[in-house]
Specification:
The complex is a heterodimer. Chain A is of the alpha+beta class. The radius of gyration of chain A is 35 Å and the shape is elongated. Chain B has one domain (18-184): Lipoprotein localisation LolA/LolB/LppX (outer membrane lipoprotein receptor (LolB), chain A). Chain B has an 11-stranded antiparallel beta sheet. The chains are: A alpha+beta, B alpha+beta. Chains A and B meet through helix 7, helix 8 and strand 4 of A and loops of B.
């Protein structure tokens, strides 16, 4: 943790503690620390991406993340317009596309009506003999030309000739048409009505928008989404047309909104419940705000420490760490319940200090194992929790007594009747039975081996299922590439990347005819490699033979003589033209399209081939041809993400095991008795077994969120164990301990029980796990801790 | 100024007479339930040495079916039915287009189909109408309203007698023009 954020551990001579000066000093130090931490937190960015899960030096994972962060498929936003009449939908579609094109936020806004602008058309036309995929050597022979000219003549008789005859003289073989087909293709074009894209049934007009910012730049995506909404409002004035949107960016911002709304509402409710409990139990408003101070300090100091060490904070770390710091809510409760009128606040704290210190030490050590990690996410979690929990301890130990009158006690004395003694009476048989049960359940889990882990991040997505279905609907209707599958080619330079892409495209063409996939896109479709362009140039006949071929081909056809002179000139020019390279396209629509599919990075160039309608990804990936210089990877984003999450989980579990060993060690150092160590730690292990079994029985699979919650359960459970196993001869103090733990467990159950009612999968996972775990820990430690101790005594 | 006002007043009855005649022709055209005929079309194009002559058959059925079946020199079939245009050529086979998706095609289809259907509202949507003659012997000049369409077509002139169209002339901005004469069977 950062040095600024920790109040000094001043030894506390009791004579001075009473003095006003000493109190003021403590409070002002705390305020200073809080302000300092607040400043650090406010000035550090919070990022929401997945890099925290990823181990360093995993090439595929890095590619994947680059894709997730900035890949072209993550930039697509799919729009649907429903309601009102077909004409209204088409009109709104046109207006909306026009408005979106006029902002700088989008590189593309298409609705089918966007013919290429004249300048772009001319650019394509100018380079047709290098770019056209249909230009084969036999196309310019006598036979080839004759066939082409006959076809052009046939087209002239058609009523549609008015549109085509413009290009006749300079492009008799129709290469421009081939290029336009490429431009519009790549994806299967939706049906058109009134000139714009519509879903097949005609109920929904469709648009496709590509943002300039990456799909995981949530701030920019939010801006884009807002811009679309505003443009839509302006475009749809006076109509009943409604807008639906989808795409990774939209879903991500929506997820954020959902989490925020759901979490805010629930946390407000949970806060109210905790306040109510504290008020009911202690009858003092002071306990409410004093009780919140350790947790608040913990959050601030933890966040500041992470910001200070890592320079940035992941959103998910924040969420996980806040969960873990739930333990700190218990600390003031321990103090309040153990207050007795016969001693000062400081004396009570001194009584609790060894146990409290051990509680904190166990949690800190459990997290210490996470620090030594290749995973930045685990490291952040560790730093946050360690700094936070130490801050909470320091706040409880030194700030609370400074804020309380020395003889303060809750207005309502902790009265806990004789029944407490009955509850606390050791019941070794019951303890044995529970232990046996735990063993049986563990055995059952070992034999049954139910599917334990949920590695699919999508299962935890807070986005409602209807929206995911809408996304699929829009995607299918638009024929847009799926986010899921793509081939990534990396190469030292753009030319190699293009050549390798062409090798893979040949393979994909073959697979496409076999029906393994529906289609693909890639830079090489728009811009062939220089190698291919040179091959095409080499195949172009010289002016003399082309003139001879043309003269022979035109014989018997009614074309005016000399009509095709522009064609001869164009071919002659193309023979010596320098091939087009990516940099020649900058500033054009074609350049933009190529730029999202082929771009330079830190280590050379990357070419992307997004795939659509993949039916069998395994076969497709297995037979991927080897490229010569660069490397080609088949990325199934979902499978890869799951693999990475599983790896992260494995690492976390391993470190948890180390952490537990450290916990055992520190408890032994603190208690100096193996019996007490067993009494404090065994019950919580049994409780964890019960919790996992209950979760599995409830049909849950363990995700990262469950795992982190189990960590909290471990932390809290160890605290319960430590408190219940204190060999305290004073029955009154034992009652007070029970009182404290009932309050702690009760408020934890209330808060996390509420979370478990959430519709957000992540909150539900946390809530359910912690509520179950805390209840199990409380019951098991209550029943088993003392018998374990006394029996061995 | 007064002279202008006079002129306007003098023209008023004339304009309304032309309008009455157009209404009358539209009524007669609309009364035709079906039509079958042959056509001969002569296209004069800058790119060709000689005019391109095509012949074939023309079918119409009220209100929205029109088929132009070219027999010579290349067989071709164009069939407009409601919003759908079906094109069949030996080179490309049979293809279907939704006319809504190709707004530049629609005026071409409607020039003859909506005229034969006596559907003045549709005609007015795409063209400015200029009527001359009498219901017994009329000509109707269609000038495209959409500036994009004027890039391809200057005007289409239809001539007819009563409820039958006898010719359609298409004038293009580059000087190319075509004349289709229709003989009703």
């Amino acid at each position: 943790m950062s040095s600024v954020s920790r109040p000094p551990r001043t030894p506390s001579p009791s004579a001075e503690e009473g003095s006003q000066r000493y109190r003021r000093l403590i409070v002002s130090l705390w305020l200073l620390a809080v302000l300092g931490c607040g400043w650090v937190v406010l000035t550090t960015p919070v990022t929401a991406d997945l890099t925290l899960f990823v181990p360093r030096a995993d090439p595929v994972a890095e590619l994947l993340l680059e894709q997730l962060r900035s890949g072209p498929t993550t930039r697509l936003i799919l729009l649907g317009l429903d309601g009102d009449s077909e004409t209204a939908r088409a009109a709104v579609s046109r207006q909306l596309a026009e408005r979106l094109r006029s902002t700088a936020l989008f590189t593309r806004a298409t609705n089918g009506a966007d013919a290429l602008p004249e300048t772009e058309l001319q650019a394509l036309f100018a380079h047709r003999y290098l770019l056209s995929p249909t230009l084969s050597p036999d196309r310019l022979t006598v036979d080839g030309l004759h066939a082409a000219l006959q076809q052009r003549l046939a087209e002239l008789q058609s009523p549609l000739a008015v549109f085509q005859k413009r290009w006749l003289a300079s492009d008799p073989t129709g290469e421009l048409l081939s290029l336009l087909r490429v431009w519009q293709g790549g994806m299967r074009e939706p049906t058109k009505r009134l000139g714009v894209w519509f879903a097949p049934d005609g109920d929904r007009a469709l648009l496709l928008v590509e943002t300039r910012a990456s799909g995981y730049d949530l701030v920019a995506q939010r801006e884009a989404v807002t811009a679309i909404r505003q443009a839509f409002v302006a475009a749809s004035v006076g109509t009943g047309v409604q807008l639906t949107m989808s795409g990774p960016g939209v879903l991500a911002t929506l997820a954020e909104d959902q989490v925020r709304a759901g979490a805010e509402w629930l946390s407000a409710l949970a806060l109210a419940a905790v306040v109510l409990i504290l008020l009911l139990v202690y009858r003092s408003a002071r306990t409410v705000w004093l009780g919140a101070l350790p947790m608040l300090s913990a959050l601030l100091v933890g966040a500041a420490a992470v910001d200070w060490v890592f320079g940035k904070m992941y959103l998910i770390t924040l969420a996980f760490s806040m969960t873990l710091l739930g333990e700190t809510l218990d600390y003031p409760t321990y103090l309040f319940s153990h207050r007795r009128a016969t001693e000062t606040v400081t004396e009570t704290l001194r009584q609790l200090w060894p146990t409290l210190r051990l509680c904190v030490a166990t949690t800190v050590l459990g997290c210490l194992a996470m620090l030594d990690s290749d995973f930045p996410g685990l490291g952040q979690l560790g730093v946050f929790t360690i700094a936070g929990i130490v801050a909470a301890l320091v706040t409880t130990r030194w700030l609370l007594p400074a804020l309380l009158p020395p003889n303060w006690a809750p207005p309502r004395p902790v009265t806990i009747g004789a029944w407490a003694d009955a509850v606390l009476h050791p019941r070794p048989r019951l303890a044995l039975a529970i232990g046996g049960c735990g063993l049986l359940v563990l055995l059952g889990l070992a034999i049954e081996t139910p599917p334990l882990w949920e590695d699919d991040l999508a299962a935890l997505s807070p986005v409602p299922r209807e929206l995911l279905r809408l996304d699929q609907e829009l995607r299918t209707a638009l024929g847009a590439p799926e986010v899921g599958h793509l081939i990534v080619v990396t190469a030292p330079d753009a030319e190699t990347a293009l050549q390798d892409s062409e090798t893979i495209a040949a393979y994909l063409n073959r697979r496409q005819t076999e029906g393994v996939l529906a289609g693909y896109d890639g830079a090489m479709r728009y811009l062939p490699s220089v190698h291919t362009q040179r091959q095409r140039q080499a195949a172009l006949p010289d002016t003399e033979s082309l003139t001879a071929n043309l003269t022979a081909a035109v014989a018997g056809l009614p074309f005016k003589s000399g009509l095709f002179a522009p064609f001869l000139d164009a071919v002659a020019a193309a023979r010596t033209a320098s091939p087009l390279r990516p940099e020649d396209l900058s500033g054009t629509l074609l350049g933009t399209r190529v730029g999202t599919l082929l771009f330079p990075g830190e280590r050379g160039w990357t070419a992307l081939l997004p795939l659509s309608g993949v039916r069998d990804s395994r076969t497709l990936a297995a037979d991927l041809p080897r490229v010569e210089v660069g490397q080609a990877y088949y990325l199934d984003l979902r499978a890869e993400t799951n693999r990475i999450v599983a790896g992260f989980r494995g690492a976390a579990l391993q470190r948890l095991a180390w952490g537990f060993a450290l916990i055992v060690a520190v408890v032994w150092i603190g208690l100096r008795s193996w019996r007490r160590v067993i009494a404090a730690l065994l019950p919580v292990l049994v409780a964890l077994v019960f919790t996992v079994a209950a979760l599995l029985a409830a049909g849950e699979r363990l995700s990262l969120f469950h795992l982190v919650s189990l960590l909290l359960v471990l932390g809290v459970g160890v605290d319960y164990g430590l408190f219940f196993s204190r060999p305290d001869p004073d029955p009154d103090r034992r009652r007070r301990t029970l009182h404290a733990l009932i309050v702690c467990c009760g408020s934890a159950l209330t808060v996390f029980g509420m979370l478990s009612a959430s519709t957000l999968p992540a909150l539900r996972a946390i809530g359910l796990t912690v509520a179950l775990g805390v209840a199990a820990s409380f019951i098991v430690t209550l029943v088993a801790a003392r018998p374990l101790l006394t029996r061995m005594n | 100024m007064i002279r202008w006002a006079w002129l306007l007043l003098m023209c008023w009855p004339l304009a309304s007479v032309a309008d009455d005649a157009l209404t009358e022709v539209m009524r007669m055209l609309a009364a035709v339930p079906a039509m079958e005929g042959t056509f001969r079309e002569e296209k004069t194009l800058a790119v060709l040495q000689e005019p391109l002559v095509t012949t074939g058959l023309l079918y119409y059925r009220a209100p929205a079916f029109l088929r132009k079946r070219t027999l010579t020199p290349q067989p071709e079939d164009y069939e407009a039915d409601g919003d759908w245009l079906t094109v069949e050529t030996p080179a490309a086979g049979r293809r279907q287009f939704d006319l809504n998706g190709y707004p530049q095609l629609r005026p071409f289809v409607e020039a003859i189909r909506a005229t034969q259907a006596g559907d003045r509202a549709t005609l007015e949507r795409y063209y400015q109408l200029e009527f001359q003659g009498t219901p017994a012997d009329w000509s109707l000049r269609l000038t495209p309203r959409d500036p994009q369409a004027t890039a391809y077509v200057t005007a289409i002139v239809l001539r007819g007698r009563g409820g039958s169209i006898s010719s359609m002339e298409t004038l293009e901005p580059d000087g190319d023009h075509s004349l289709m004469t229709i003989t009703t069977r």
